[in-house]
Amino acid sequence: MIKVMKTDSDYCEIIIKKEKKYIKKYNRNQNELREYYRSTPEVEILTLLNQNNIITPKIIKQTKKYFLEEYIEGDLLKDLYPDHKKIDQKIIDEIIKEIYLLMNIDANSLLKYTSWHDNQTFYLFQTQNTLNVIKQYYDNLKELYTKLDLSEKIIEKIIPLALHLDNNRPLSLIHGDRHKKNAFLAKDKKLIFIDWELGCVGDIAYELAFHLHQMAYTKEDEKYFFKKLKEVYQSDYIPLKKDVEIYRLFVLARSTLYHVYWTDLIYETGSEEEKKKQLGHFMRRYNRLNMNPEFNLKPKTEEELDQIFQSFRKERKNEVIS
């Protein structure tokens, strides 16, 4: 008898057969306009990782519609280490080690899925994809973006930063979504990253920037992260660090713009507890972004932001009624 357990994703299920668990993943569409662009089939990335002894779930079965991978027993990092709390430095060591190892994998077989050919064109693709998504959001939420003094011009201002990226650094395999919800500490204490669906051949500086943005390290842990990064990359560290900061600005701007949509959605359908949590999430990004003088934004308190989202929802409700 086979038992199927649902997960948070419509594309992923847990299958229990003869008391053994498996992960069933339905193949995602590639090259669609989405917040986070998917270019490369996850199953091909997992196959390449397994061939190169990177610890990932092994593929058990593959069909045209789905693939089965092994179920790993362990604890998610998000359950072990809350945001903005100190993390075991051995975890940071393992993260940097794996990112560095990816640079040594021959991923030429995956280049057929990319439309970029170096770091600058990778950056330009990411920023253009963001502009395309924001234009869709802006059509429906123009008044809300205006109230927040946000628009696609924020992304347009940082597009020229592509010219400052180091094109001598080769493209390499990246995870693309390396955060606490996608990392297990297995029973044998080995760190394993899952969900490689945003993986591709890309710029390792983006991988590092997105990871730093999502992990919510303490200042002390972030300082240690860069210390270990310098030890690993040595002479390549200075240009890499410079490019990581360029991507961090882009990732922050993108996240802030996207979270206007997600915060409004919670205000429309969520509970008071969900609203408060999401508002704090948005406020931290919004106020970090306004620290850059080029964007000419003013920091806002939680009460000010709450009033903006509440008033926009009220206006929308009145429009529907009338």
Alpha-carbon distance between the termini?
Answer: 54 Å
| Residues in β-strands, percent | 5-15%
Q: Which range best describes the helical content: under 10%, 10-25%, 25-40%, 40-55%, 55-70% or over 70%? A: 40-55%
Identify low-pLDDT runs: none
How large, in whole angstroms, is the Cα Rg? 21 Å
Number of domains: 1
Give the CATH architecture. Answer: Alpha-Beta Complex
How are the strands of the biggest sheet laid out side by side?
1-2-3-5-4
Annotation, overall tally of beta strands: 10
Structural class: alpha+beta
Reading off the top of the CATH hierarchy, the class is best stated as Alpha Beta
**Helix and strand string, N-terminal first?**
EEEHEEEHHHHEEEEHHHHH
Q: What is the overall silhouette? A: globular
Number of helices: 10
> What is the average of the pLDDT values?
94
CATH homologous superfamily label: Aminoglycoside phosphotransferase (APH), C-terminal lobe
CATH topology: Aminoglycoside 3'-phosphotransferase, Chain: A, domain 2
Question: In this structure, how is the largest beta sheet organized?
Answer: 5 strands, antiparallel
Structure explained in plain terms:
The structure is a single chain. By secondary structure, the chain is an alpha+beta fold. The protein has one domain: Aminoglycoside phosphotransferase (APH), C-terminal lobe (Aminoglycoside 3'-phosphotransferase, Chain: A, domain 2, Alpha-Beta Complex), CATH 3.90.1200. Helix content is 50%, strand content 13%. It contains ten helices and ten strands. The protein has a five-stranded antiparallel β-sheet, covered by helices on one side. Strand 1 and strand 2 form a beta hairpin. The longest helix has 33 residues. The radius of gyration is 21 Å and the shape is globular. The model has no long low-confidence stretch (mean pLDDT 94).
